[in-house]
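User: I'm putting together a teaching handout on how sequence relates to shape, and I'd like one worked example. Could you take Signal peptidase I from Virgibacillus halodenitrificans, show the sequence you're using, and then write out its predicted structure as tokens right after it?

Assistant: Happy to. First the sequence, then the structure tokens directly below it.
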Amino acid sequence: MAKKKNEWFDWLKALLIAFGLAFIVRMFFFAPIVVDGPSMLPTLHNRDQMIVNKFVYRLHEPERFDVVVFHASEEKDFIKRVIGLPGEHVEVSDNNLYIDGDLVEEPFLSEQKKDMKSYQILTSDFTLEELPGNHEVIPEGHVLVLGDNRGNSTDSRMLGVIPVDELVGRTSIIYWPFQRIQTLGE
């Protein structure tokens, strides 16, 4: 009888340790997220399920073109792409991205740009000064984010620059649906 009781206790202890470890990993390291809406098309589709790396920005700063999840409000997280970094001036003119006056290629938009007619607009022209906060350069501790579906995205053009403290983490792995399993490249 005592042996059976010890066996149950060992199982209970193992389950509690497993749940505790899963809780710690979920809270501090990795978390699932479901893409909600078309703002990152064609890169991400509505209902794609992804893993968010929550500790990556504790080790280093965000990099240009990282796909990030951030707290847009207390109730809602958004997923967008980092375009501008602290200290930079960002401008879009004639569907081209300029950082500090230099043209920057956006490889993740190349298919969209290739399929466009000459009169179509992928990204409406803007300068950093025209965005909420009318900054001349992106302040320290902030990034500028845009959705890949520039015509249908609530991003820094409406929200202003995003504090790095509001970034939940970087995401680069789609794990569901099965036919879309992939890691994101540039």
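A couple of points you could highlight for students: The longest helix spans residues 2-28. The chain has a mean pLDDT of 87.
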